[in-house]
Amino acid sequence: MLASIIGQMDAMLEPADFGDKQWSADWQYTSDFIKSGGEVEWRNPGGDGAERKAFVRARDALDDAGLVIVAGGGRRVALTPEGDAQARRACGLPVLADALCGLDWLADPGHAPLKWRMHDQRTFISESSMLGSDPAPAVSQGQARMAGETASRLTNAVLPLLAAGLVEWRVWRFGSGLFLFRPTAEGNALAAKRIADGSAVPGKWPKFVRRSAMKIGAKTADACEAYMTAWEGAYRARRDAPPLWPNVCAHLDPIDPPPKVQAQGEGQTISGDCRRGKAEACASVQDEQTEGRETPAEGTP
Q1: Which H/E stretch holds residue 99?
Q2: Distance CA 47, CA 39 (A)
Q3: Fewer CB within 10 Å, N side or C side of the chain?
Q4: How buried is residue 56: exposed, middle or buried, by Cβ count under 10 Å (0-12/13-18/19+)?
């Protein structure tokens, strides 16, 4: 159950570029999700009365254990910080305690030259910079700007920070296939505290990203399958969601890359909705189930 909840949450939090026509609806949809405290729909999967009662008891037991928060008369649930950590561990995914090095990396003064300019302020840093590459890698028409496996590892690594409200994201421009990240106000405060008390470890970030593939082994295969099933359903709902407030229109503010790469990749677009690796993870989970669970394997969501 925890794996299913975290799968829905990650589908709502993961960076995605659905194009300019869907941008406003997606902004409203995901903003409402964040304001709710990360609540997702809970549907009882039980087939008969006895099964449904058993699932309700299991959900309420997680609530009593401080792992989930039940809301909306039992129709919605959210994970507590401890529930989030347990769910990610069960799915072989990175947890917040380890991902904080990513916040340290974004807040490191040494990375200021990598920041992009928006409204005359240096703010976001591109995901490619976070992977040690050019801030805006060149790309050919129709090709991905970053390899799917590499992009998925970064997404896995940053999702705990997004879930905790410490980091936020935006797309460079529609169809660019490049996402940018920055600390939120809360993230900046925590980063400053970690720098002050000496606990900041920005140097751990590169190795952490390399280790952030979903680990699918004997003890996690069922959880990974539940995660991916929930993720797929929630992602499709997000992609196709109508505006919550049709008369409210959100705009994507222009942002400029660091001067030395400003002309790189101009006018190039990438087709598709930029899921970048989740489909491969579904296949990886299915392969793991088919081949047996004696030998741990890795997949990339």
Answers
A1: helix 96-107
A2: 24
A3: N
A4: middle
Q: What is the dihedral of CA 76, 2, 158, 240, to 10 degrees?
A: -50
Number of domains composing the chain: 1
240 C-beta neighbours (distance < 10 Å), count? 10
For 225, other C-beta atoms within 10 Å of its C-beta total: 21
At 268, list the tokens: 């190039």
Q: Which two tokens stand for residue 249?
A: 């229109």
* Dist. CA 87–CA 273, nearest whole Å: 26
Rounded to 10°, the helix 81-90/96-107 angle is: 100
- In the prediction, which pLDDT does 276 show? 53
pTM of the predicted model, to two decimals? Answer: 0.85
Range of the domain at 66: 2-299
Query: Quick check: 181 and 265 in contact, CB under 8 A?
Result: no
Joined tokens for residue 197? 């008390």
Considering only residues 219 and 234, tell me which one the structure prediction assigns the higher pLDDT.
234
Confidence label for 285 from pLDDT (cuts 50, 70 and 90): very low
Q: Which two tokens stand for residue 64?
A: 């009593």
C-alpha closest to that of 85 among 69, 97, 77, 76: 97
